[in-house]
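User: Could you walk me through two proteins back to back? I'd like the raw sequence and the structure tokens for each, with a short line separating them so I can tell where one ends and the next begins.

Assistant: Of course. Protein one, sequence then structure:
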Amino acid sequence: MRYRLTFVVGLALGYVLGTKAGRERYEQLKKSARQVAQNPAVRNTAETAAQQGRQYAGKAYHVVSEKVGDRVPESVAQRVRSLRERNGHGAAEDDWGTGNT
């Protein structure tokens, strides 16, 4: 019984110390990530990448729609139309028929 009690006390102590050390490291990582995210160069690069991604997605959409054309089953085309109509609540819509979220 004494060994079990010693083991449980050691386990509890290790858990408490480990979680405290883990929380401190987590807070350090969170602070570093926040600093990187607030860096103007990082923000500009991320925005540029997002804009380029939207441009390439739009181009890909048009290329695919030209090649596929009328070969899409009517059920799929109807589903896309219904999704576009459902987005009529004023949100900005992209070429994919989804809101810019």
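----
Protein two, same layout:
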Amino acid sequence: MTAAAGAAGAVEAKIAELGLTLPEVVPPIATYQPAVQSGVYVYTSGQLPIVGGKLSLTGKVGAEVTAEEAKELAATCALNALAAVKSVAGDLDRIKRVVKVVGFVASAPDFTAQPGVINGASELLGAVLGDKGVHARSAVGVTVLPLDAPVELEIQVELESA
């Protein structure tokens, strides 16, 4: 077995070790691709917390959805984003680093803890990828998201050369 073949699957093994499963890529709900590659970068479209074809929860964070629930949903979005990355990169072990994370939180008017919600995604990426998961980030409160999702996430990753 080559060194490259021996290393293949390490990221997915870490996901499994955490008791998680890398999902299938969530099909687009409009006219776009879940992820595109340009050079050594992969950009994901906004990923919703869809599991098994359905949103786990809907509504605004700070109203119908608690901050803790939303933090878990952000982690689900991050897993969906990794699935989208794999769909174009072929192997998550090619990730050199997560460069940027942008998180959107559908927020009740008085909810201001968006960074804590998006920590769910950041913590998952760190747990799965270690230092390669450390990234720049924005956490933005918005009025509404597609399908009344509480959270949406997009990531940009840099890949090792093939």
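The beta strands are 35-38, 41-44, 50-51, 54-55, 95-106, 136-142, 151-159.

Let me know if you want the two compared in more detail.
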